[in-house]
Amino acid sequence: MRLDNITLEGMLPRVFVSESIPDSEIWRSTATFRRGESYLVEATSGGGKSSMCAYIYGARTDFEGKLLFNGVSSTNFDMARWQKLRRGNIAYLPQDLMLFPELTALENIRLKNGLTGYASDSKIEGWLERLGIASRKDYPAGRMSVGQQQRVALIRSLCQPFDFILLDEPVSHLDEQNNRIAAEIIAEEAKTLGAGIISTSVGNHLLLHYDKTTHL
C-alpha cells in the first residue's frame, strides 16, 4: 500500500511534557508531510529532531499525541506492520548512522541491499563514485572518517523502495561539494519514486529545494 501522508497530531516527547517549550510548528501542533514534497525541519540542538525521526520510523514510542499514516493511528501497530512500513514505505538515515564498524563500506551497503534486492551493483558503484568513496569501498567502516561514513550510510538508506525518506542531519560532516552531490542523488531517487523527503538540520542542511521549511 502506498503511503501518501504522515501526520503528527499534538505530538510531544514525554520528556518535554512537564517543560515549557518554545513555539514549535510540530510539537503540540499538527504537522503533515505529503508524498512527493520535500521538507526541511530546522531545530536547535536538543530540540527533539532525532526523536521525531525515530517516532516516525517506529523505533521509539515515548511520545504523547498521535502519529498517523494515511490517517490511521500507529498506536496499535504490531511489529509486522512496522516492518512492512520500513521495507517498502519509509527509508531512514539516522544521525548515529548505525554502520557495522568491522564490515567494509560495501559490505554495510550490501547487507541492506541483500535484503531488498533493490539497487543494482552498477547503481551502487555509481553512487560510490559520485560521492568520492569508491576507492574506500573495501575499507572497514570503523576506519573511515565520519564524513565518509555518512556517505556510506546515505547509499545504504537508498537501497530500498520508499514513499518517504527520513534524513536526520545527513550532511553534518560534508563539505559543500559533497553536500550538493548527496542532494542530487537523493532528489533523483525521490523523483523516480514520487517520494517525499524529510530532512532535519541544526545548521548545515542538505542543499535541496524545499517545498516547506518547518521549525521544530
Rounded average pLDDT? 96
Largest sheet: 5 strands, parallel
| Class by alpha and beta content | alpha/beta
Termini gap:
29 Å
From the structure provided, what is the oligomeric state, counting identical versus distinct chains? Answer: single chain
Please tell me what the overall shape is. globular
Short description:
With 216 residues, the chain is an alpha/beta fold. Helix content is 33%, strand content 22%.
Describe this structure in words.
By secondary structure, this protein is an alpha/beta fold. It is built from six helices and nine strands; from the N terminus they run βββαββαβαααβαββ. The protein has helices at 49-57, 79-88, 105-116, 121-130, 146-157, 176-193, and strands spanning 5-13, 30-34, 38-42, 63-69, 72-73, 90-93, 164-168, 196-201, 212-215. The chain has a five-stranded parallel sheet, with helices on both faces. The longest helix is centred in the C-terminal third of the chain and has 18 residues, at 176-193. It is globular, with a radius of gyration of 17 Å. It starts with a strand and ends with a strand. The mean pLDDT is 96.
